[in-house]
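hey can u check if this looks right to u? its 472 residues, i copy pasted from the old doc so theres a chance i mangled smth
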Amino acid sequence: MTKFKAFKAAYADESVHRFRSFIENANDLIYTLTPTGIITYVAPNVEELLGYHSDELVGRSFASLIHPDELQTCMVFLQKVLESRTKQQGLEYRIRHKDGRWLWYVSNATSTLDSSTDEYVFFGIGHDINERKQIEESLKASERLYHSLVETSQDLVWQCDVDGGITYQNLAWEQVLGYELHEMQGKKLFDFQSPEYAELFLTEFNRLLEGESIEQFETVFIGKAGNQVHFVFNALFLTKDEEIFGGSGTAHDITHRKKMENRLRESEEKYRILLEESTDAIFSLTPEGRYIYVNKSFAGNIGKSADEIIGRTLWDVFPKKEADKRFASLSRVCQTGKIDILEVSIPSATGNNHFMTTITPIKDDDGEVISAICSAKNVTQLKVTEVALREMACMLEKQKQELKKLNQALEFRVSERTAELLEFNDLFNRLAEQSRTVVWEVDAQGLYTNISSMSETVYGFRPDEVIGRMYF
């Protein structure tokens, strides 16, 4: 019997030793509290976990270590354990590290009878969940950010079930389509489309339900005001337990882009018509001298169709000398990046047609010349007019020379006649002076042009009073 008692005592001592070893080497925080929250025991590993020596905590109220936001919850948990005398678990709280940091812990606890006081005490095990809480907080922050991005996104974000019924939409739907969100909830995406667009969208949606994705799918919705809204859709299927239960994606409003594209097409069509119907020959060349565009006028002047010219080089279309001349001008434009003007001629059944060609460089974003647009104006009539004007100028010059000769001959004849008249007048004056009668001369109008000095003796008038007067 003595041996049995000794064995029992030894076994008890061994159990206590094992339990103490387990507590002292545990990774969790093990502690006991009185019903009023005074720490009566804390495992030595508290120094590694919280920075305190166990002696610093025994006899201290646990409330001094708990974050104020969780203190009330911890007090309720303590009372519940002691009053129910049942195991409780899942209490999450923050406890202060000795360096001032707050660390998250979760505790499971039960009540146990203290034989020395015959009172039930709180026996708890706390596990560090600080890393988990940080991950959860990061996840919450990420979810808040995602939610904020989705709700403030200008793109339309949506989710629907396998029937196309809308289960989620962000606020952008209201702004773009004009419907309030509650007006669209429960309806299908296709309910906001015309039948022909709904049919096309349904085909894409069925592909989504078969496990494919929707990428850059363009479609049209009808807004609340009856306006057409163009979208480009991207979407992925949603799964749960390996079963597809719907789809989720985005829709980008491209209405403005579509309007701009239509305007651009209209503008391009107008310019295409202007180019094609222009009487000027318009064409485009690569820096190597290969045609990439010609209008009808150019093709007509060459005597070939546009298809026969496009893709060909200058040397395929013109004789080498003419092609070299054109290529030299094109090369200057490509090298200098400046406009060049070239006069060329093209043979025709009625003679050469002359063209004044303006070559304009087309540059890329880096300023490199990638092609040239050329406009050739037919100046044949102008050239004919220039030739006629030169011929007329030559004829006028000849006539001028002939007139000059005639003038010189006339001047000579006038000078001869003047000398004769002067000589006759001198003779007339001498005869008149020698005559005892009045000698006079009148012109065709009957006016005296000359009269001898005897007029004063015979008529009583001096010659100067008679000359210029009517004959009497």
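DSSP finds 16 helices and 17 strands in the chain.
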